[in-house]
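Session log. Operator J.P. requested a structure for one protein chain; no other inputs attached. Running the standard single-chain path with token output.
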Amino acid sequence: MKIKTVDVHHITVPLPVETWTAQESFSDVSCLLVEIVTNNGLQGVGQVTGPNLKLVNDYVQQFGDIIKGMDARSSTVIWDKLFSLTSPRPYGAEAKDSLPPPLSRADRLQITAAIGGIDNALWDIKGKAADMPVFRLLGGEKSKVPVYATGGYLKKGASITACASELGNFIDQGYRAVKLKVGHHTMEEEVKRVSATRDAIGDAMLMLDMNACYDLNECIRFAKAVEPFDLTWLEEPLHWYLQPADFAKLAEATSIPLAHGERLYDRFTARDFIVNGGIKFIQMDSTRHSGITEHLRIAHMAEQNGIFIAPHLAPEIHGHLVSAFPRVGFIAESYGDPDSNPLWYGGLFSKKPEIKSGYLHLNESAGFGCDINWDFVDKYRVN
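Structure written below.
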């Protein structure tokens, strides 16, 4: 079962209104679809999200030339081969081994994103080759995975506490857990938003996504202020440059568990957060970095250290990972508001797992259980 073709499809769909978090503003949602076809006609599709998708596209095409002719089932071999290109090797700069020279250190984010898109497409193929959904291929059993809905994005013209009715509506839809975006307003205003949201959702689980908005001392003060609201976690609480030792200090200072990981490239960058960083939830994102193969390694490391798995977004992919780890697979993330993700709600998939009553219902179709609506792709294709 040899890899015959590797193609990339770049799409961008506009949002109905400009939206922002503590970190950034955005007016559209973009992704790459990595499509791999084997010599016996099996097709796999992997999704890539994140910044500078044009550069990711270039790397996927470069890597596609390297992996053509390899066995599509050999995802670990392929992953290790591509990842090896990020580091020096004997005579590598002269490309004497038929591989390209070591890749730019400045592009590691995009490189690992490209590897992830390829790897996820290969797992889709592996499931189809075995005629099994990926979660069963990984040893999972449950097709019903808990999910939470994320809301509270800042939108032009909305009041500070509009988030309360939005997340309350998610509970009315059947969700049992919701996540609120915080960090854009002053600390006092954010505490008001958290209080209003807790009042609106009753005793449902409430998480806060902070998008790295505070330094350590600020975050300790904020955590103390929101501890009375019975929070499940603080996500990405500290500035991007702060390290596992800083997270450990925060964990000692608050009773609220910490979550982190969507921007960690691989098991090496995740390791110290899992072992020494004081986190209770690891939130890897295979569509941003490295794919399912590497995130299985991270998940096993998390399980060994008693850390729960709560992957970031892409429930159609990450629900399979949560199912495969019954002891520590905690929850997957979904999109509560149709306006927040026009890919999921707008027609990217002609078939996908259903979200109903707070659960993702994985289907028994082979691979990830999704079919791409290629007419939708053509409509929003970036040339």
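Operator note: The longest helix spans residues 108-130.
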